[in-house]
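Subject: for your reference before the review

Hello V.,

The reviewers asked for a structural picture of the protein, and I figured it would be easier to keep everything in one thread rather than splitting it across files. Below is the amino acid sequence we used in the manuscript, unchanged from the supplementary table.
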Amino acid sequence: MALRKAGVGLDAGDGPAKNMLVTAASGGVGTFAVQLASLAGHHHVTAACGARNLDLVRGLGADETLDYGTPEGASLRGPSERKHDAVVHCAEGFPWSAFKPVLADKGGVVVDLTPRIASVAVAVLHWLCFSKKRLVPLIESPKKQDMDALMGLVVQGKIRAVVDSRYPLSSAHEGWAKSMSGHATGKIIVDMVEDAE
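And here is what came back from the structure prediction:
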């Protein structure tokens, strides 16, 4: 959904090639965004994450990686100095001002998956001013057809779910705490049915 909002074609030859950035690329949503963009085969995918997950996101298909812990990574500037046509923003803590200098001059879009009031205000301002560089808050629920398409790609072995950890239902609060820490690598699973012993 976020990739579509960013104007990123997901099939080979579907639309022009894009220079893409995925923030929190090693998280539950970011791991899928990197794989889906890479799967199309014609986009250049830059993945931003912490140092410990750089190899993981490369293995998922990222062409270039950024370590948040470096000055380049913190400023979202990759080694190639490419400007981004599209950003799938899965992390908190980056204001619009961090994205504006790294977006393509001809017009770039940041799809914010963690929008706050400030994001919505910036988006409205961009719309009113016909700005070429835009912030688009994603305020939608996943659609069944999108989830079915993802599941089909998993079943076909074209993409994979990265699992950080599993918790029994009785420990769901621990899974929630891990999720809220912002340091999970991939998805956190809570088993809704506990095995009877």
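For the response letter, the relevant points are probably these. Strands lie at 19-23, 44-49, 64-67, 86-89, 109-112, 134-137, 163-168, 187-191. The chain has a mean pLDDT of 83.

Happy to draft the paragraph if you're swamped.

O.
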